[in-house]
Amino acid sequence: MLAVSVGTVKWENFKIAYKCKHQDGQNADEQDELIKLAGLGGQDVIHNLLGCTNIKDEMDFVPYQEFNATNKQRHWEDFMSGDWAWEEADKIISINSLTAGATLVPIILGSDKTTVSIATGQTDYYLLYLSIGNVHNTTHHVHCDAVVLIGFLAMPKS
Fold this sequence. Notes:
two-stranded antiparallel sheet; five-stranded antiparallel β-sheet; alpha+beta; elongated; 17% helix; 158 residues
């Protein structure tokens, strides 16, 4: 897992509060819970990925359909060669014809759990990664600046 820098996007700390029902014997008690997390601004990361010169030749900026010339069999390889990307672009253009020629940028999120034991008392972290569907699969597989760590959620052991 490689987290690379994409431009000057800065890490920010967030606190999210939500109501949580705790079962205490027979009484359900609703309390405020607070989650602390750190992360990068997703829109800025996407902007920087699209402008990343290291992977600019490894991206598709329009959906496409590829067929074998001899047997007319469809070939799928990258995200933008799939039916979803093709149909989504058609749908967007049918809703607003002014979007013709714009780039569809599918967002891909992934999460992974890791445990840090040194100086944290066995804290679990849920890492959140972001990439875009425009990047070729071969580039995603080797990360090559295409997969960015955008956040982590600490879950201390209680």
